[in-house]
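Table 4 source record.
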Amino acid sequence: MIELKSPILSIPGISYNLGSIILAEIVDINRFDTPAQLQAFAGLDPTTHQSGKFIATGVSMVKRGYPYLRWAILNAL
């Protein structure tokens, strides 16, 4: 078995399995210039629903992006 040595395992709530999933989905963290880009990649960025003059008061996630990455991050919370 390959041993995972990554700083991600030092984050509370991230186990070996969740860390492996997150690292496998992200592949190379350096391809993201900002945390917002990584957030959008995972599909965790908020969206606002609007039509004409109506703007929804609640904010929801867009749920685009990589579902396994989103699942792993949400389960780490």
